[in-house]
Amino acid sequence: MKTNSSLFRLQYLRHLSLTECNLNGEIPSSLGNLSRLTHVDLGYNNLVGEIPVSVGNLKQLRYLNVWGNSLGKIPASIGNLSHLRYLNLKYNHLVGEFPASIDNLSNLRYLSLAANGLTGEIPTSIGSLSHIRYLSLGANSLRGEIPSSLENLSRLTHVDLGSNKLVGEIPTSIGSLSHLEYLSLGDNHLKGDIPALIGNLNNLRYLDLWGNTLTGEIPTSLGNLNQLNNFILASNELTGEIPSSLGNLSSLLLLELSYNRLVGKIPSSLGNLARLLDLRLLANHLIGEVPDSIRNLDKLRVMSLGNNSLSGDISFILANLTKLSEISLYSNNLTSTLPSDMSGFHYLERFDVSGNSFLGPFPKSLFSIPSLISVLLQENQFTGPIEFAYTSSSLSKLDFLNLSSNQFHGPIPESISKFPKLGRLDLSHNNFTGPIPRSMSKLVSLNYIDLSNNMLEGEVPGFLWRCRMVLLSHNSFSSFENPSSQELLIQELHLNSNSFRGPFPLSICNIKGLRFLDLSNNLFSGWIPQCLRNLLVSIYELNLGSNSFSGTIPDIFANAASLSSFDISRNQLEGNLPNSLMNCEYLELVNVESNRLKGKFPSWLGSLPSLNVLILRSNEFYGPLCVSNGFQRLRVIDISDNDFTGTLPPHYFSNWSEMTTLTEYSTIEYMLVFANLSALTYRSMELVNKGVDMRFERIRRDFRAIDFSGNRISGKIPESIGSLKELRLLNLSRNAFTGNIPRILAKLTKLETLDLSSNKLSGQIPQELGELSFLSSMNFSHNLLHGLVPRGTQFQRQNCSSFLDNPRLYGLEDICGKRHVPKPTPQQQPEEESESEEPMFNWIAAAIAYVPGIFCGLVIGHIFTSHYYEWFH
């Protein structure tokens, strides 16, 4: 708008409407010269700057609408507009506190300041706007409590205070606003009970209290709101049962009670809500069967009952609800079969019955519905082969199909190619056999495919390489079809645990942008190729473990700036660790266990600022463990079964700060985990206990462990180990440590497993160790210990073998039985340790797995007894 426009010389102008005229620039101050204006509408333009102070000169103004611009502050002069009845400033960039001068607008009927950046409190003086009917302050950053003076605004029909930062309780006085039709207080920080007096608002059509921390039960009085269309109480902490009185809400279209703590059964009275379109009871603690009366809701469009503990047969109910567009029943205990013919659900778009106990054959008729977008059948007990009903491929909208974790078998059918818009396909954890059908090349929109954990075989077709994520692990694939260069779009490739053999497939080196590669547990052999350096520019997880690669590790990590996990364990590699690994500043995990690598302890790895897990186990490393100021982020270290020597100075562990404090995870970090625990856990653990491989899918990331066993380290155990207060496992067995067991170990209050066996330790077992309540597995055997064994409960639960070959120990009657406990005598001499006897336990973790979006690495684990199940999932 131009200041010198002839428009602003129209002294008698009363009505100015320039809405949606694509105006830009600032509102000229000369607008204030048009003193006869009664109506100004500048809404939905591109105006910037601030509302001019001169607007206060428009004393006759009754209507001011400047919504949908980018204006800054509200001038105090707006309080001069004593005749103003309508003020709409929503969807601007207004900042500052709620303008006190608005209190002077005594004739105001309509006030909307929604969707701005206003701060501060809602002033109590707002109660002076006695004529106001419409009040909308939602989507700002207003703080403080809802002023009780709102009860003075008896003509209010619309109140929107949602999406602010309001605190305190909902004023009971709101129940006196008898004309109220719309009440939105959602997405704030309100607490306390829902006032029962809200049930007196007989004209209320819209009630939204979602996203607060409201507690208590849903008042039965809310069943009196027979004009109510939308009832939204989701995402609070409400308890108790769903009141049967809600069945009286005869006008209700939406009932949203999800994400609370409601218990009991779904009341059968909800079947009386004949107009109901949307029923959402997701994520509560509801039990029992879905009442048969729900089948009366024949207008229902959305039924969302997932994540409860509902049981029984729901097929009879579903058969009558053919207008549903969304069925969400996931994570319940529902049984029986699906309706035999679902082709009549003409409007169905989303169907999710995952995580139940549904039985029977594949619901072929479901896939004749052209409106279908997503079908999630995973984690049930469906059986038999799969085949898709005929539907025109040009009409199909199917984007997401998940049939994982069932008992489907037979080949993947050619008819799967009928869904050209399919973007995500998960058939994992079934019993599918045969090759991947060539017809799947028609799925040109496919970005994510998971066929893992089946019995598929043959060649991996080249068209899969145009997908972003390909998971084919745990099958019997044996070869690759060479892809064309146009198809190399893949970012994550999971080929572990198949039957691939021969040299590293060089075609993989041509993939630009590859972020994750897992070829572990195959039969690959030969040298690791130099061309891998091309991948390391972008890759952040590389797992070549459990193959037969030989030769040296190529020095190709100079540009591997993104690499966070590197696993080449269980191969036949030799030589030294390449120094170029020092360039990997984001490296969190290094696992080279069970190779023939040599060299001194790579203390230079301590300079890596993110290193959490270091596994050098079962190689030919040698020499002293150099003192270093690094390893501050180390959580797990396993250097067992090498040839390390020398002593550990008293301050050796002083800088290992990550083991002294527990990494905290915020609520948001927990919620960001996408259908898994990857942010809080390392995945895919292969553990060794007395030579027996044991596999665990997860181990918690707050696990801290040190394993220096099976070396030739001598001298005293460093006192600085007592500072590692988050340590869960300590294994120093099969070394040559001498001296006493440090009493400072009693400060390791989180310690669960301790192995000091097969050393030359002397003195007594510190009595203080008996106070470590989590210490459930320990081994002191084959040392030179003497004296009374601690009497703590945890000691009494140990096996006798944990104290063997310490003949001067006594107090073992309750552990070993009197027949097996020698009486201590002064003449008894400690026997030499038995070098040939099998160590009591050892532990190792191998393999890594990836979950989209969050690093999920390899970690070392252990197991002594079943007491350790809580670490593994």
Automatic annotation (TrEMBL):
Keywords: Cell membrane, Glycoprotein, Leucine-rich repeat, Membrane, Phosphoprotein, Receptor, Repeat, Signal, Transmembrane, Transmembrane helix. The keyword Phosphoprotein applies. One of its GO terms (cellular component) is plasma membrane. It is a single-pass type I membrane protein. Residues 5-114, 125-231 form the Disease resistance R13L4/SHOC-2-like LRR domain. This is Disease resistance R13L4/SHOC-2-like LRR domain-containing protein. The chain crosses the membrane at residues 840-864. It comes from Microthlaspi erraticum.
